[in-house]
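Quick question, first post here. What does this chain look like in 3D?
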Amino acid sequence: MGGRSSGKGGLKLRVFSFGKDRSGLFKPAIEEFAQRLAHYAALQLEELPAQSSMAKEATALFQRLSPDERLVALDERGEALTSPQWAQLLGQAQLSSVRLAFVIGGDEGLDESVRRQAWRVLQLSSFTLPHRLARVVLLEQLYRAMTLIKGEPYHK
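> Answer (accepted):
Ran it through. Tokens below.
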């Protein structure tokens, strides 16, 4: 799945995550929401290899980021947004042609340097989520936000 790019329109999204889902449990849901999201935005999913420390994962992430991307760190201690607020965030990015790069940490979470350098630090849930499940939740929320922006019904 790494490096896959799809979509149309002006909004460009990149989702970084660490490690692979060896269980295969989450892959169908990730693919489903990535496909739905592709109707609204260019989407890249990048799975980076898990590292021996959060600091090494941060270094790997920073090497992959483009200077024109705004980093959005996903962390359980981040700011909670409602679905309409997610839509507003994406709508503003789309209007201003800003590229957003979302990062989901590995098993141990995100290094503090990622949180400090992020444009925004947001939470997907006040619960602690396994990072593989967080990928599904993120893609679903991005898809939901785009349907809100377009005024379209949410397809289940």
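Residues 4-150 form a domain with the Alpha/beta knot fold (CATH 3.40.1280.10).
Confidence is low (pLDDT under 50) at residues 1-9.
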